[in-house]
Amino acid sequence: MILAFVLTSNCEPASKELIIREVDGVPVFIEYGIPYFTRFQETSHYQIDLSGLWKFKIDPENQGEAERWFEQDFDDSDWFDHPVPGAWNIQKKEWLDYVGAGWYRKKFKVPEFIKGSFVRIVLDGVAFHSDLWLNGIYLTHHSGGFTRWSLDISPYLNYGDENILVIRVDTQRDYDTLPPLIKPSRPLGWWAYGGIHRQVIIESSPRTTLCKLAVDTDHQGKIQVKGVVYQSDNLPASAEIKVRLYEPDGSLKETLYKGILFIPAKGLKAFKFERILKGIKPWSPSHPENLYKLEVSIKSESGIETQAIKIGFRKFEFKGTELYFNGREYFLRGINRHEDNPITGPVQSEAVIKKDIALLKELRVNFVRTAHYPNDPNWLDACDRAGILVETEIPLYQVGWSFKSLRSAEKSRLYFNSARMLIEMIERDRNHPSVVMWAVGDECFSFFPSIRRLYRRLIEMAKRFDPERPVTFAIFVVPYGLTPFFEISAGLCDVIYVNQYLGWYFRTPEEVDQLLDKIHKKWPDKPVIVSEMGAGAVLGKKPGGKLYEVGYSNARDFSEEFQLKIYQVQLPIIKSKPFVVGIVPWVFADFRDDKRIHNPIPQMNLKGLLTYDRQKKQAFYLVSEFFAQIEKEYE
Ligand code: GCB
User: In whole angstroms, what is the distance from residue 411 CA to residue 408 CA?
Assistant: First the structure.
């Protein structure tokens, strides 16, 4: 049964494009006519990695389509050689702040022997929106640059021959795209990096293939597995399924499941089981080495495949205003992080990931908020291995901060784009032991009923795909302590996320005390996390001297002492509140931010505990010491 998801209120109905099939009680997201595929960390499928140099040209006048830049034999010899993964902004100085369209062309060969298999193109991140042609044929449009998506390209390939893939990428935002436009004069709030900034692969599998694997565990050995098999052929198929679990040292623990499935033509069939396993070593931030491998093998007439994911046995839960991890009271020593650095921009190379993970460990954090968009999946793999918990969110960012933006919250298109990215994020990331929470937005104008409705629908959607994980969104604090008074949406969340910059944009740092008490009074049964706090500082800058505008008629000296003071004052106050279960400073490292034109380093958000090139500011040491104390208390 195909269900077109329909909104339940008096607003415009949601687009029929959002298709979810309930397959034996397992929700499967259907996109571009095929199911959304789980990201396996190991696969026996034949893959062609398209990383490398692609031909590239910016298209500020939007001529590409009219001039047919997508044609197979179009002469691209004078185009720029652009590395993929890569962002155009850092390829040439004059492209740094280019917002608009850019075209990528790539030739690749496909071997003859994959003919007859099911072949997909898998894109991990094309920011923000893309149109795709293969061998001169237009295939589709995708909106949203931070999640994986894939297309069946089997019918369009030249097997045993050369193929040409063309992708038009566009970074223009609208009121209903993600990230959204708030008003034409309002910058994004981080850098609008454009390009194919994550991996692109061509993947060939048997025509009967595993499309979804959803695994939930707890620290006492409980494991629930839901798998869905897709039959891409016009004929029905039968498939032998075997699920095996391997110990962290690689040895076989046991075969968990064996069964035979009958899958209808062009259809889906699920298998499910639950077990309580003995002798399980729980995964946790202090024992991240306890990663098990769950492997699924499928044997059908169209071939044999083996795919695997890494899982951890763990339980993350809120009880009343408290947080428990693996049954023990817990506290999140967090940090917000943008995917940005001076060498690769948004691209998360192995070296970038290694360096940042090492710094996070030095900072003694056990939690990262992927502000404000789904991160590179390789980053999440690294968090699994390092024992860093993760909240991951969709860039439904500051919606409602203008009249037009508020109007967009009432329309189905914004809901559709948000729900789609949310599902893609959950379906891609839900098996990571490190991923403990989803967030459906940041600082939207949650004082308004239209935003409340939008958030409510997104939370329901998140729970439909993942009933286990808590869901939240960040509320913001306006001057004069009015937020708890006017806020009408935060109660929808499993944990209240508060972004507060008391002492920086306005008021005094000490007032965080009353603010948190007021929030607790309003939502006495909910735990609270301070999801943002901080101040800007330039490395080595002493107090005094020139002041720089920060808004709300305030100016600051951006000294390291000022930043330090905010943390000195606020950290103990926040930690003293029994209902607060986490502190997440803003931000790990300075990052490019198009809003900050008046800053001492223009267009740079300077609230990092590290500089853009990862040098430590004084506040880094303070936060690290503070977190080390908390770590002793809880680990
Ligand atoms: C916020 C936003 C974040 C900004 C930060 C700031 O509240 O969530 O995106 O970068 O404040 O620096 O003002």
Answer: 5
Name the DSSP class of 126: E
The pLDDT tens digits for 276-292 are: 999 999 999 999 999 99
Looking at ligand 1, which atom is closest to the CA of residue 476?
7
Please tell me the distance from the alpha carbon of residue 535 to that of residue 558, in angstroms, as a whole number. Answer: 8
| In 220-267, beta strands by DSSP E | 222-231, 237-246, 252-263
What does the alpha-carbon distance between residue 456 and residue 415 come to, in Å, rounded to a whole number?
11
Contact 271, 215 (CB under 8 A): no
For residue 514, give the H/E element and its range: helix 512-522
Q: In whole angstroms, what is the distance from residue 138 CA to residue 151 CA? A: 12
Instruction: Give 500 Cα–ligand 1 centroid separation in angstroms.
Output: 9
Question: Does residue 340 line the site of ligand 1, with CB under 6 A?
Answer: no
Ligand 1 atom with the shortest distance to the CA of 499: 7
- Report the atom number in ligand 1 closest to the C-alpha of 596: 12
- Backbone torsions φ then ψ of 288, nearest 5 degrees: -75, -10
Q: Would you say 308 and 293 are in contact if contact means Cβ atoms under 8 Å apart? A: yes
Q: Which residues contact 324 (CB under 8 A, 6 or more apart)?
A: 315, 316, 317, 318, 330
Position 10 pLDDT exceeds 90? no
| 427 ligand 1 Cβ < 6 A | no
Q: What is the pLDDT of residues 616-627, one digit of tens each?
A: 999 999 999 999
- Using a 6 Å cutoff on CB, does residue 442 contact ligand 1? yes
104 CA from centroid of ligand 1 (Å): 32
Question: What does the angle CA 328 – CA 582 – CA 538 come to, to the nearest 5 degrees?
Answer: 145
